[in-house]
Specification:
Layout (H helix, E strand, L loop, with lengths): L8 E6 L3 H12 L1 H8 L3 E7 L14 E2 L2 H6 L5 E4 L7 H10 L3 E4 L2 H18 L3 E2 L11 H7 L5 E7 L2 H13 L3 H10 L8 H4 L2 H14 L10 E2 L7 H9 L2 E13 L5 E13 L11 E8 L3 E8 L3 H21 L21 E10 L5 H10 L5 E7 L6 E6 L2 E2 H13 L3 E10 L5
Parallel strand pairs: 1-2, 1-4, 2-3, 4-5, 5-6, 8-10, 10-17
Antiparallel strand pairs: 7-9, 7-11, 9-10, 11-12, 13-15, 13-16, 13-17, 14-15
The structure holds NADP nicotinamide-adenine-dinucleotide phosphate.
NADP nicotinamide-adenine-dinucleotide phosphate binds next to helix 1.
């Protein structure tokens, strides 16, 4: 036991919104158990908010609108950042780490771009920087990747890590409804924000992919390295076509280790809506739930499933980190920090081998199928299935390919769009979760 073990651990909480409120509640309600687990009581020294006038249900003396003063207090050992956004959290976390305080944060937007800077500050000051809640809310995925799988080689991480988009796609799949109407319903039910861009355009999922890829592959990956497409172009027809192929559509965050024939390795980190076969475990993840499938050379396939957002579920992950950081303050030592020793380069999306589903409206006349097929074969892309739907003005071809470089596939789609016999390419989606 260190000299710290007899005194309380001072905790500063920055932000008392959805997550912060639940963190304060759990810290208060479970104080006795948490003290036993940590080996010393954790005491809230203060809670920083923007609006001091809002009723919070806690001792008003704890509240402050000056987070920088709270962070600087001598009696604070751990700072829990639950404000969101890049600034001021970036500066506050850096200050905290530099002054020897451990930090727990759920801030994926910040971590996706600044983990390097913050981890360096934590390493220099020999303190903890924990962020389990930043990816997939309550679901333990950072710690399993960082610690449980530290002796294995992770080959792929693929997940549904955004509840809003999964809610929308699940609802469209269930009742055939259209995207805009389902987005409006998600807003009414509180599953989508007033400005849903970060969710529906895949930015949130890309930030999480950057964090997951960095940890899984011991390399530095930022949100800018993540290829990203959102779900705002997904139509009821796409969901119906997916169903006809025994698939559904999910917004996936995929982090993959790509090994070339000569053994060189690169990372692919990408986010897009993809067809997923119904027998794949991610196809059964519906509503606002999240799930992450990890594949590792020796462990095989592992799946983590649960509530990816919400005040209490996210607070559970924050408390897990807080207890770890507090134990380290009491007993000495610190948890593992990010490791980037592998420094693998990022593969451009064009080099990634994917499968495509292409749905197009075509002229209903002989020879169309063979000209369309010719565009694929001229780029060495082999077709897995072709389905003809409708007739006359509604004639459609739905082509599903085998795996090929993404650049060749998108070049083919561009060529199809220029063909006279192809009236329009109505939908292009990737197909994931198959072994072909
Ligand atoms: P939130 O409800 O918007 O709460 C933010 C809190 O921070 C509010 O209490 C706000 O004060 C305070 N705040 C903001 N800027 C401040 C400033 N400059 N000075 C002092 N206080 C400030 O956010 P949240 O949903 O709890 O999310 C918090 C963090 O957790 C974010 O990084 C988010 O990405 C992450 N996260 C959230 C979830 C989730 O389900 N909500 C899930 C995973 C991760 P006022 O109350 O006075 O406005």
């Amino acid at each position: 036991m260190t000299e710290n073990s007899t005194r309380a651990i001072g905790v500063a909480i920055l932000g008392m919104g959805n997550v912060g409120t639940e963190v304060v509640r759990i810290l208060t309600d479970n104080a006795a158990d948490l003290t036993a687990r940590v080996g010393a009581p954790m005491e809230i020294r203060g809670v920083a908010v923007r609006d001091l006038g809002k009723p919070r249900g806690i001792d008003p003396a704890l509240l402050t609108d000056k987070p920088e003063d709270l962070v600087a207090r001598e009696d604070v050992d751990i700072v829990v950042e639950l404000m969101g956004g890049i600034d001021p959290p970036r500066m506050l976390i850096r200050e905290a780490l530099q002054s020897g305080k451990s930090v727990v944060t759920a801030n994926k937007a910040l971590l996706a771009d600044y983990t390097g800077e913050l981890a360096t500050a934590a390493a220099t000051a020999k303190v903890d920087l924990y962020f389990e809640a930043a990816v997939a809310g309550a679901i333990p995925v950072i710690r399993p990747l960082m610690q449980s799988l530290a002796g294995d080689t992770v080959t792929k991480v693929a997940g549904i890590v955004n509840g809003t988009t999964n809610f929308i796609l699940s609802a469209m799949d269930a009742d055939g409804s259209d995207y805009n109407e389902t987005l409006a319903e998600a807003g009414r039910l509180g599953y989508a924000e007033a400005d849903p861009t970060a969710d529906v355009e895949g930015y949130d999922a890309a930030a999480k992919a950057a964090i997951l890829a960095s940890i899984a592959f011991h390399s530095r990956v930022t949100a800018l390295n993540v290829y990203r497409e959102g779900i705002s172009n997904i139509t009821a027809h796409d969901l119906a076509s997916a169903k006809a192929l025994d698939c559904t559509v999910k917004l996936l965050s995929i982090c993959e280790r790509i090994v070339a024939e000569d053994g060189t390795q690169r990372i692919s980190a990408r986010v897009y809506p993809a067809l997923v076969p119904l027998e794949h475990p991610l196809a059964a993840v519906n509503g606002a739930f999240n799930a992450v499938v990890v594949e590792a050379e020796n462990a095989g396939r592992l799946m983590f499933y649960g509530q990816g957002a919400g005040g209490a579920p996210t607070a559970s992950a924050v408390l897990g980190d807080l207890v770890m950081a507090a134990r380290n303050k009491v007993h000495g030592g610190r948890g593992p920090l990010e490791s980037t020793y592998a420094s693998l380069p990022i593969a451009p999306m064009g080099d990634v081998r994917t499968r495509y589903y292409v749905s197009m409206r075509v002229a209903d006349k002989p020879g169309v199928l063979s000209t369309v097929a010719g565009e694929f074969s001229s780029r060495n892309i082999s077709i897995s299935t072709v389905r003809q739907e409708g007739a006359g003005e509604d004639a459609r071809l739905v082509v599903v390919t085998h795996r090929a470089p993404d650049a060749a596939l998108s070049e083919t789609v561009a060529a199809l769009e220029k063909m006279d016999s192809v009236l329009s390419v109505s939908s292009v989606l990737r197909l994931e979760g198959t072994n072909e």
